[in-house]
Amino acid sequence: MFQSTKQKNEIILYIIRPNLHRKLADLCFELEKSGENMNTLDATRAELALAILFLNKAEARDKICRAIQYGSKYLSNGEPGTAQNVDKTTSLARKFVNDLHALISPTPQGTPLPIVALGKSKNALMSTFLFLDQFVWLQRTGIYKNKEGAELIGKISLYCWMAGSTCTSLIELAELGRLSASMKKIEKKLNNTDKYQNEEYLLKLKKANDRTLALVKAVMDLGVAAGLLQLAPNKLTPRVVGGLGFLSSLISCYQLLPSPPKTKTP
Hints:
Blueprint: H1 5-16, H2 21-33, H3 40-55, H4 58-76, H5 82-93, H6 101-104, H7 113-140, H8 147-190, H9 199-228, H10 238-256
Helix pairs in contact: 1-2, 1-3, 2-3, 4-5, 4-10, 7-8, 8-9, 9-10
């Protein structure tokens, strides 16, 4: 059981205020570390609270809709039917998230100029893609009547997405190279010491794993954009595009999961 009614009320407060998800995670972690025996119902409630916090994120809901959309595309394989209807309907439910603020956000100190330029280009391209994609949405809902104009805008937006994904891939490759070099320097300093006991090395390793996952996702998005543009229709069939989009969406959902709370030393 929870230690007090106050802790229960705190959890409810954190559910209502999703911007405090870190505090909720820390609270649940403290409850697990405490000596009390939580019953199954209490443990389930704590896990459900974290799930609610995840679903409270607009971007998380968008990625779930995206997974459904491309999963349906994979099942339909471009053939008319229920799966294709779900694909088209789900695409209308997705929300517009503007990432223009990333263009003016400061970059980490020490980042090479080429990586900075690629990052700003990626942000500009992805923001343009998201903006132009709204005209496609307006045409599908019947608000924007110019079908030919919407198709042209749709193609331009997909090219922006493909170019943005290319920039992302190049950025992740460059950052992985920088991380690899810094990890080798740490290994040299440690000599025969176990590198997996070194906090700095483990931090670099975690960043490298995150970068690798982001690279895989960017390559998948690149394939999805190329498939939607029908640049290689024989290889990038609707089923392949649907599979790539579905896996990319799952990776996005994983990346949005709350990070585990840090262990607090007494």
